[in-house]
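How it folds
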Amino acid sequence: MRTETIFGNKALKELNELFAFIEVQWTDIKDYILNGNLHMKTVVRQDQEDILRMAGEYTVIRQDRLIVGVFMSKASYLYIDMTDSLKRLAKGLVSFSGKV
């Protein structure tokens, strides 16, 4: 038996925004690595801070809505796991750019 976890439009919009920020961060990292522009290094770190802040805010909002019973716990668990993974990815990209 297959069950599906369905995210609402708000959750999908939030995840898409986070993915878009990761894409921007990756582009900025490539520019930094290829050009060695120190300004881009600052931009990359700011990208990370923006992603961490945004993911944190989304997670808190999701948890608050879970407490009042708006979401299924399984969907919320997956959502929070995805936002945590995106935060780790953002941190990993900054770490990667510092080693190159």
Q: What stands out?
A: The radius of gyration is 16 Å.
